[in-house]
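Severity: low
Component: inverse-folding endpoint
Summary: output formatting inconsistent between runs
Steps to reproduce: submit the following structure tokens with default settings.
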């Protein structure tokens, strides 16, 4: 007789209490459960299937090596309607084919071509800063990276069309990722809620109604309205690209408009819209949250910030200017970003929904389980990182062996690893190199041990209350340039 599989142990407090604890202090609650229950534990929240967290590199290896036929990513707990034919929700061969189409516009060579523009956009924001101005760091990073996304996705840097797209994108993201939408996602179940929104959108557009952007009676109608509007702009874009036969554009929407399946059929318009919207959602809050934690660490550690700035200035002295392609290779800058993503990853875990019984480490989990590889937990293991595991010490990335893919995975891993990780790292390196070189910020978090709690924004973990900063000084664009110091000497 076969025995029914049981889930690993977990807290016995009510589902509501577990959800509250996760919502207000996810890092601490996960660590507490890890300590109490070991490397596999089960959490339960209202309206959701149980979530099994695994927290050892061996389990992470089995998790990331799960085969396509063992999982169903349509069950992902993302309550945002980007269309179910977007890479993140696809399974099996469809998923593999989709990555083949999506990855080329995001490979290193294409990104390198965009590095100058990433720098240009960052410079525009810094040049507009004045001493005394206040910013909330996640929102500032969100704004800069949204401008970069407009360029990566549509090839637009400025002008009226860029403004129209940008405004609509931001309003759609805000209407689709606010707390109410996530709450409704929990109540209905995220996949069901997503499906409801998608059907409302398809029904609307089938009637030739492409949205007017107004709020409606139902709490989700604003999101559907804005999606219809944004999708229609994208649809017209695809048609123009296809009609023009222009093959010179390298932005994502042009590349997708020209792409075909293996049999030569062009990608359907809805598919291109889905992928484009997925790129916006996939890259927006993730980058904002990662940048917010990074800034927090730099505010706490002026010694690290100085070392990072010195490295940037040295590179400028060698190159004669801020060369973004050289800057993104700087070892200490990269070590600092890695260390921030190690200690405070915005994606605390990465999920797979099992459709057959699967062995993860020494335990077998039953079909139907949602299992998460706990990046935050594995990033905090003493047996991997040493006794100083809790210390922000970028130098560890420059000494000895590098951690393996199951020890450090802020962008997930395996066949489903984040396709935007290179873009995300490149833009954050450029932004933070320029902040370090040109802007002095003060904050209630500077030089002290005061830490904010954590909150969940669009499924990402961010510092509670954001990271408020005040501009103290803005250095000129040429600071550190060889000719600038000559002029100063003269
Ligand atoms: C700091 C910023 C970012 C972080 C922390 C992040 C994190 C992640 C994580 C943890 C996953 C899940 C991987 C897995 O299941 O193993 C993921 C998937 C994904 N990300 Fe990102 N991401 C970031 C930026 C971006 C950007 C800029 C884009 C778009 C250009 C993007 C597009 C995607 C897509 C399409 C997937 C689904 C991949 C698949 O299922 O095959 N992400 N990301």
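Observed output (run 2 of 3):
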């Amino acid at each position: 007789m076969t025995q029914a599989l049981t889930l690993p142990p977990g807290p016995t407090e009510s589902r509501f209490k577990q959800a509250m604890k996760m919502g207000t202090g996810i890092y601490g609650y996960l660590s507490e459960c890890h300590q109490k229950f070991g490397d596999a534990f089960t959490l339960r929240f209202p309206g959701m299937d149980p979530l099994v967290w695994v927290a050892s590199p061996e389990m992470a290896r089995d998790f990331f090596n799960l085969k396509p036929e063992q999982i169903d990513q349509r069950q992902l707990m993302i309550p945002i309607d980007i269309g179910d034919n977007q890479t993140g929700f696809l399974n099996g061969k469809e998923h593999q084919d989709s990555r083949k189409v999506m990855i080329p516009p995001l490979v290193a060579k294409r990104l390198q071509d965009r590095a100058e523009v990433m720098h240009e956009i960052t410079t525009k924001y810094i040049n507009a800063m004045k001493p005394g101005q206040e910013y909330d760091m996640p929102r500032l990073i969100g704004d800069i990276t949204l401008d970069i996304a407009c360029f990566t996705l549509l090839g637009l840097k400025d002008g009226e069309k860029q403004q129209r797209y940008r405004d609509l994108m931001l309003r759609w993201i805000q209407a689709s990722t606010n707390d109410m939408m996530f709450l409704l996602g929990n109540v209905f179940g995220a996949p069901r809620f997503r499906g409801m929104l998608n059907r409302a959108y398809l029904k609307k557009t089938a009637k030739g109604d492409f949205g007017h952007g107004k709020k409606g009676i139902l709490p989700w109608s604003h999101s559907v309205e804005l999606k219809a509007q944004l999708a229609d702009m994208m649809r017209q874009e695809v048609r123009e690209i296809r009609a023009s036969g222009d093959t010179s554009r390298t932005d994502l929407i042009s590349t997708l408009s020209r792409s075909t399946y293996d049999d030569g059929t062009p990608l359907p318009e809805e598919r291109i819209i889905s992928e484009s919207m997925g790129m916006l959602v996939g890259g927006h809050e993730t980058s904002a949250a990662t940048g917010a934690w990074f800034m927090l660490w730099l505010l706490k550690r002026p010694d690290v910030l100085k070392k990072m700035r010195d490295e940037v200035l040295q590179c400028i002295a060698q190159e004669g200017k801020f060369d973004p392609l050289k800057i993104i290779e700087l070892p200490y800058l990269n070590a600092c970003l890695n260390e921030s993503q190690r200690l405070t990853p915005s994606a605390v875990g990465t999920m797979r929904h099992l459709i057959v019984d699967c062995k993860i480490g020494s335990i077998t989990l039953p079909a139907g389980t949602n299992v998460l590889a706990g990046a935050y937990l594995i990033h905090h293991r003493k047996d991997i990182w040493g006794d100083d595991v809790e210390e922000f010490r970028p130098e560890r990335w420059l000494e000895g062996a590098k951690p393996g893919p199951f020890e450090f995975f802020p962008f997930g891993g395996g066949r489903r690893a984040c396709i935007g990780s290179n873009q995300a790292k490149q833009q954050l390196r450029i932004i933070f190199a320029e902040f370090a070189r040109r802007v002095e910020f003060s904050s209630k978090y500077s030089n002290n041990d005061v830490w904010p709690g954590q909150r969940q924004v669009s499924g990402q973990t961010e510092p509670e209350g954001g990271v408020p900063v005040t501009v103290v000084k803005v250095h000129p664009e040429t600071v550190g340039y060889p000719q600038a110091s000559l002029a100063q000497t003269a």
